[in-house]
C-alpha cells in the first residue's frame, strides 16, 4: 500500500468527523431522490398577455370615466343656467309685488277718503256742507235732516219751510228753523248742501281700481231734494 494512501486512512481514523471528498456526492449515494426539473414557462408570452390585458383594462376604464364626467358637467351647466333664470324671474316678480303693494296702499288710503263716515260705504252721491266742509252721502244727510225736522215739528206743529213770513207790527217773523247740524262735528248747518263733483269722480276711479261698479240706482242729486229742509233764501 502506498504511503500516501496509508497516511490518509490514518488521518481519517483520527478525525472521523472530517470527510474528504474529491467529487461531489451523488444523491443516490445517500438515498436521496432528485426532484424532477420544473418545466420552463414561457415568460415572454405571459408578459405579453399581461401587458395586453392591462392595456385593455386601462383603456376601458378611461372611456367609462370620461363619459359620466362629461354628462355631469353638461347637467351642472344647465342647472346653473336654470337657477340664474329663476333668480332673475324671482327678482322681477318681487319688484312687481312691491309696486302692487304700494299701489294697494295708495288705493286703500284714497278709499278711506271717499268712504262716508255715516254709512261706511263709498259716497257715490257726495254732498258737502258749506258751513263746516264735511262731506257725506246724500241719502245719509237726508235721513239726518229728516230726524231733526221731525223733532222740530213736535215743538212747532205748524212749521212749514215754505210758509211765507208774517209781518207783525212791522216786523217780519217766521217760525224758527230746525236745528240742523253736521253729523260729524255737530256744527250748525244754515245752508243747504252742495254736490261735491270732484269727490264723485274720485269715487268712481277708486271703485274701478278695486273692481267695484257703481250702484244701478242712485238717489237724485237735484238741488230740489233739499227744498223741504231749507227755504229758498235762508236769510229771510
From TrEMBL:
Biased composition (Polar residues): 1-17
Biological source species: Mycena belliarum
InterPro entries, A to Z: Znf_RING/FYVE/PHD
Positions in coiled-coil regions: 76-113
Protein name: RING-type domain-containing protein
Coiled coil is among the record's keywords: yes
Keywords, comma-separated and alphabetical: Coiled coil
Protein's UniProt keywords contain Disulfide bond: no
Residue ranges of the region described as Disordered: 1-47
